[in-house]
Amino acid sequence: MAHSRELSKISVAENIDRGTLKDLGGIANLDMREVKIAVVNRSEVADVSLSSGYPHFMARALQAHVGEVVYLSPDKSLVTTGIEKGGRTVDRLIFPLLGRHISGDHHRVLAKRLAYVFGSRLARSGCNVIFGPNAGVEIASLTTKIPVVLSSDLTWANMIDYYPGSSSMFAFAKKEGDRIEGAAIRRANALLYPSKWAARTAIEHYGADPENVHCISWGANFDADELPSREEALQHPLGNELKLLWTGVDWERKGGPIACECLFTLLERGIAARLVVCGCVPPARYRHQQIEVIPFLNKRDPIQRQKLSQLFLKANFFIFPTIAEAFGIVLCEASAHGLPSLVRNTGGVGGAVIDGVNGYLLSVEANGKNYAEKILEAIQNRMGYDELVRRSRGAYEERLNWDAWGRAVRPIFERLVCEGTPLQEHAVPE
After folding, report:
1. 424 within some domain
2. pTM, two decimal places
């Protein structure tokens, strides 16, 4: 169902003064202690490994800038775990036989079970606003008059036939997931997305009211004390050897072959260059003396996180020719280290990288030679490259950090709490 309003009406939080409450009238006088946020998710949000860590960092930002955060513990009952495990088991049995997947978690049975569990916990929580990070299934059938804020980097419609593997899902499973997503979006008072790509789909495909849709960039998943100072982040000298960095666990989807082709093109043109590959081991045909492979770094380990930080600091460009990407928090992390990114302009990456500011967006048709040409163009002028580094760090300081996100969402939460707008009780259609 297409929405008649224009996408331009989406609230772009980067353009408001994050230090004030804009156009909120008396809401500015709201006592922040009155905002009590229930974090709803069937997984452990406090675990930094969940969903690349963003629910964890979001909850911390809300605690720091919005109000008291109450974690509603994940449901580990036999009923819920049985539903989830049963779905995964059926999928494992069906796929080898029919070559099609079912949706193991986006279905009405699980949605209604989670609504029952979290509904009872909400009634005892004393919270006056609900926050669901990546929690469409948890929110879809929830019956409550407490305002709901739903956050994700993509919708179900964004994912289907875009991410590798999603095309092999049964038609009924695609429809069921779409039904759940639509119910969750209609259920929410406010929808937070890090890109216009996702926000557009919420409006045009699911009929979300543009007034309730907000584009707010996400942040780097590093603690502030783990990141380099501004002075350190601006030190990316163009020395005798050009240093490129690529990270990812999925070699093909993250565009590893294109990153290698970029390196080989630079070498063919007489440029001394080296590529660091971190996160996986490339196929044997990509072995080369100018490619350094670091198979894995655990970001939960402080020492290994520091090693990853050093990789960002020592590089001259971050190469990210991803095939499919909802946002790309790693792009925020590159900017935090003053490292310009070269990224395929697909999905929601435009919410992180602004062309010519903290890197360059290349077309989806661009190959490794095109990436090499863009690098050669960028390093022709040393002063121009240094300015690109400064702008990259500036992008992190201004918008690609979780404190900026927390300040940007504060007026949204305050409005909901102050107005106390009762929600219509949407449920997943029978």
Report:
1. no
2. 0.89
